[in-house]
Amino acid sequence: MSKISAGRNGPRLSAAWLERELGVEKPVNLAEMPTLHGYKSVTPDHHGEFRFAVLNLMKSVEQAHQFPGQNKFPQLKDWDEEERRTFLLNSGKLRDTFWKADRLLELVDDTRQKFVDFQPPSTTAQLIAQNRKADIDFRLFLDALLLYWKIFADTLAKLTAQLPCFKKNQVKGDTFRLQRDWFLNKKRSADEQYASLLETHTEWFGILAGDNHGEGLRDKIVHQPVRTEIVAYAAENPAENMVAAIMYGTDPHRVTSLVPSIQDLLFGLFTFLDDYTVHFVRRIEEAIGGKLPGLEGRTLSLFYETEKELPAAWLYPKIDG
User: Fold this and answer.
1) Which of helix, strand or coil describes residue 105?
2) Which of 62, 96, 149, 278 is the most buried (most CB within 10 A)?
3) One digit per residue, pLDDT tens: the chain, 321 residues?
């Protein structure tokens, strides 16, 4: 296995640090593992299922609004045309954004396997070009992931404001950051339990967008003078390749390893979405006077099934049990 370093002007990192980032899994508290969002391997041959309950929740709200004020949902007030169009567009956008991010995670894994083991100067121009393309693609896909998960968070905030448990125009803030600040600092009484969730379970948003503008990973790539360098360990078997993506700025001694940071981001986000879904299913059903359609049993969380293990399963939170 050989090391391929993509840059000369990036941070100088110790071999021990890289080995730790590339090869050692962090201990996980199973009590905090998500159960409604993530990948679950069902059988030894890797037949599995991907769970993403929040998308099912939004689809169920759409379905419930087909029967407003009727016996099925006697307390559900109908949307006006603008409300209906806005919710449907944002619900569709949330699904589209998830699928884009899901595809990007597949591309990250696919690109990881494109780095090849060679020792210059005995290699070919074709292999050099392949590694160069993999280097560019890996950085591109990681940057795009951060952008799309920020879009996902902001779109979720727009949908939250339209959930049937809130009055029209009651909830303010058309971005996740502004809405979180509104719940925490201006109108906690609008939903005390959700405000508590926003207060204690949004470390993932700090990774993504920071506590202040310009601090999170997404904000850094958009607003700050940062670069990302690739260090790849290419094995004889491409499936065993390991790649580190190191982000650094004006202080080269302060670096961020993007792959484990994105894994931490997804773990925190998916855990938050578990609590978000359970909370708002309960609140909405209380508000509309009936059970939301299509959310019984495993249909609450099941988004799609797989015949083999997801290529990007190592990047997603794993569901046990």
Assistant:
1) helix
2) 149
3) 455 544 444 444 444 444 455 544 444 444 467 899 999 887 766 678 999 999 999 999 999 887 666 657 778 888 889 999 999 999 999 999 999 999 999 999 999 999 988 776 777 888 889 999 999 999 999 999 999 999 999 999 999 999 999 999 999 988 999 999 999 999 999 999 999 999 999 999 999 998 766 579 999 999 889 999 999 998 889 988 999 999 999 887 788 999 999 999 999 999 999 999 999 999 999 999 889 988 888 889 999 888 877 878 889 998 876
Q: Whole-angstrom Cα distance, residue 258 to residue 263? A: 9
C-alpha 20/C-alpha 285 separation (Å) is 47
Instruction: Give the residue among 95, 78, 184, 192 at the shortest CA–CA distance from 148.
Output: 95
Distance CA 79, CA 65 (A): 8
